Structure to design on (369 residues):
C-alpha cells in the first residue's frame, strides 16, 4: 500500500547509476530507492557504455541512460543534460556533486524546481586537478550553494565550512554502512591469498594523492609487524603506476587490483586485523563507515573530517613517520576494544534507516522523523 507521498517525483542526478557497483553515491542511491521506493517515485540517471545491459527499472526506480561518463570532464555535460531532462519528469532534483551545477541559475529561475544539492567533499581541493579545473569546481560549488533550495553536507566539518565560507545553512546527512556484513574466510580465499592465514592490515581506495597512499606504503615498508593489503586502481594514473613500481615487490605489502566480486572483497576486509584510512579530502567517507560497521580497529589520517566521522575514537597519524610509530606500538592498544568502539559509533550514526529518514524529510514526507 503506497502512502500519500507517492506522487512526489524525485530525479537523482550525478552518479554512475544503478545497480550500485562503483562508489558511495551509488550505494546511497540504491538504499534511497530500497527504503523509500514506496513513498516516492524515483528516476535515476545512469551512464552507459555500448554493449552493456540497460534495465529500465530497478527496485521501483525508473532508469534513464545518458551516453556520457559520469566522472571526469564528461561529468559536466552528463549532469547538465540529466538536469534538463529531469525538469520535465520530476518535482525534486537531487543533485549529487557540484560539477554540473553551473546551469542551476537557469534551471531555478525559469523552471522553479525544488533543487537539493549534496556538495560531496571539497572536490576543488583535490591534488589531481589542475588550476583551471580547481577554479571551475570552486565556482560550481559557489553556484550550487547559492541556488539550491537545500544543501546536504555529509560531515559536520563540511557543514562548518559551508557556514563560514558562504554564510549558508546546510543539512547534515552522512552515509549508512549496515549493508556491509562480515563474511567468514573460506578455503578458496586462503588458497588465492595466502596472506590471509596471518594477521594483516587492509585498505581499499582510489589510488590518488589526497588518499595518502604513498604515505601509508612508506610506513608499512618500514614496519616489522603485520603486512598491508591494499586494493585500488593502480593502472589508472601515473601516481598509481609509480607506486606499484616502487612498492610492488615488497614482502610487507600486497598491492591488489580492483576486486569486483563483492563477497571476496567483503571477506578480505572482514578478516583483517585493522583498517587503515588515508583520505585527506572530502567529508564522511563511505569505505570508512563500512569498515567501522565491520568492527575493525581504525588507523586514520588525522584531519577534521575523519575525526568527526570516527568521533575521535580511532588511532590517528599525520605522516609516514607518525604512522610508523603507531604501527610499532600496536601492542599498547586494545584493538578489540577499539573495534567495538567503531562499531558502536557506526550503529549510532550510520545506519541506512537513520539516513533515509532524513532524506525523506528533505523530499517532503510528513511521516519522516
Amino acid at each position: 500500500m503506497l502512502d500519500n507521498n507517492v506522487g512526489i517525483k524525485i530525479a537523482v542526478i550525478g552518479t554512475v547509476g544503478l545497480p550500485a557497483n562503483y562508489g558511495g553515491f551509488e550505494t546511497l542511491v540504491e538504499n534511497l530507492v530500497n527504503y523509500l521506493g514506496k513513498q516516492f517515485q524515483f528516476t535515476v540517471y545512469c551512464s552507459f557504455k555500448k554493449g552493456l545491459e540497460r534495465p529500465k527499472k530497478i527496485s521501483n526506480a525508473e532508469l534513464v541512460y545518458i551516453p556520457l561518463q559520469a566522472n571526469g570532464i564528461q561529468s559536466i555535460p552528463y549532469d547538465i543534460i540529466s538536469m534538463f531532462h529531469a525538469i520535465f519528469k520530476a518535482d525534486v532534483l537531487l543533485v549529487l556533486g557540484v560539477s554540473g551545477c553551473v546551469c542551476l541559475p537557469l534551471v531555478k529561475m525559469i523552471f522553479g524546481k525544488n533543487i537539493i544539492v549534496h556538495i560531496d567533499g571539497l572536490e576543488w581541493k583535490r591534488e589531481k586537478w589542475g588550476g583551471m579545473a580547481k577554479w571551475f569546481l570552486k565556482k560550481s560549488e559557489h553556484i550550487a550553494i547559492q541556488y539550491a533550495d537545500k544543501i546536504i553536507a555529509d560531515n559536520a566539518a563540511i557543514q562548518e565550512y559551508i557556514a563560514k565560507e558562504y554564510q549558508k545553512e546546510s543539512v547534515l546527512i552522512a552515509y549508512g554502512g549496515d549493508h556491509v556484513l562480515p563474511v567468514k574466510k573460506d578455503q578458496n580465499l586462503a588458497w588465492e591469498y595466502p596472506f590471509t592465514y596471518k594477521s594483516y592490515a587492509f585498505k581499499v581506495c582510489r589510488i590518488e594523492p589526497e588518499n595518502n597512499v604513498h604515505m601509508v606504503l612508506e610506513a608499512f615498508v618500514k614496519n616489522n609487524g603485520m603486512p598491508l593489503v591494499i586494493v585500488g586502481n593502480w593502472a589508472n594514473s601515473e601516481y598509481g603506476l609509480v607506486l606499484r613500481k616502487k612498492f610492488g615487490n615488497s614482502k610487507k605489502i600486497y598491492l591488489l587490483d580492483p576486486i569486483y566480486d563483492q563477497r571476496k572483497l567483503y571477506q578480505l576486509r572482514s578478516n583483517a586485523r585493522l583498517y587503515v584510512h588515508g583520505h585527506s579530502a572530502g567529508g564522511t567517507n563511505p569505505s570508512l563507515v563500512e569498515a567501522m560497521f565491520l568492527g575493525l580497529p581504525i588507523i586514520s589520517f588525522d584531519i577534521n573530517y575523519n575525526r568527526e566521522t570516527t568521533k575521535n575514537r580511532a588511532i590517528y597519524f599525520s605522516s609516514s613517520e607518525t604512522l610508523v610509530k603507531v604501527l610499532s606500538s600496536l601492542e599498547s592498544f586494545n584493538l578489540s576494544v577499539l573495534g567495538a568502539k567503531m562499531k558502536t559509533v557506526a550503529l549510532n550514526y550510520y545506519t541506512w534507516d537513520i539516513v533515509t529518514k532524513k532524506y525523506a524529510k528533505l523530499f517532503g514526507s510528513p511521516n519522516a522523523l
Summary: Residues 4-176+351-363 form a domain with the Rossmann fold fold (CATH 3.40.50.2000). The longest helix spans residues 131-147. The longest strand covers residues 41-47. DSSP finds 14 helices and 14 strands in the chain.
